[in-house]
Amino acid sequence: MLGIIAGMALVTYLTRISFLVLVGKINLPGFLPRGLKFIPIGILTAFVVPGLLVPEGHMSLSWSNHYLVAGLVSALAASRWKNVFLAMGSGMAAMVLLRLAG
């Protein structure tokens, strides 16, 4: 059992480190580095959007969906002020106010 876990850890480590080592030594086609820049926002979107649109197992696009409203407030603050902390704080404040109001 311990051998299986060690083997899986080794394979995981080697696949991750090989990419980091090879990227510095291989000339990548121009589209690949440009595309890799979009991976973080794609992953963030994949995590956040389902929580905003499907908070309790069904699609909710109404103003009664507090998660969606707070997310919109946060997105507006982020686009207006370009400040991560202000965006997070405004979204959290909106959620608290929505919860207190109803």
* Nearest-integer average pLDDT: 92
- Helix fraction by DSSP (H/I, runs of at least 4): over 70%
SSE string, helices as H and strands as E: HHHHH
Rg over CA atoms, rounded to whole Å, is: 20 Å
- Enumerate how many helices there are, as a single number: 5
Number of strands: 0
Parts with pLDDT < 50 across at least 5 consecutive residues: none
Beta-strand residue fraction:
under 5%
Task: Please outline the major beta sheet.
Answer: none
Choose one word for the global shape: elongated
Calculate the terminal CA-CA distance, rounded to whole Å.
Answer: 52 Å
Structure characterization notes:
The protein has 102 residues and is mainly α. The chain has helices spanning 2-23, 31-36, 39-53, 66-81, 84-101. It contains five helices and no strands. Helix content is 75%, strand content 0%. Helix 4 (66-81) runs antiparallel to helix 5 (84-101).
Chain-wise SSE layout:
Elements: H1 2-23, H2 31-36, H3 39-53, H4 66-81, H5 84-101
Tell me briefly what this model is:
The chain is mainly alpha-helical and 102 residues long. Helix content is 75%, strand content 0%. The chain contains 5 helices and no strands.
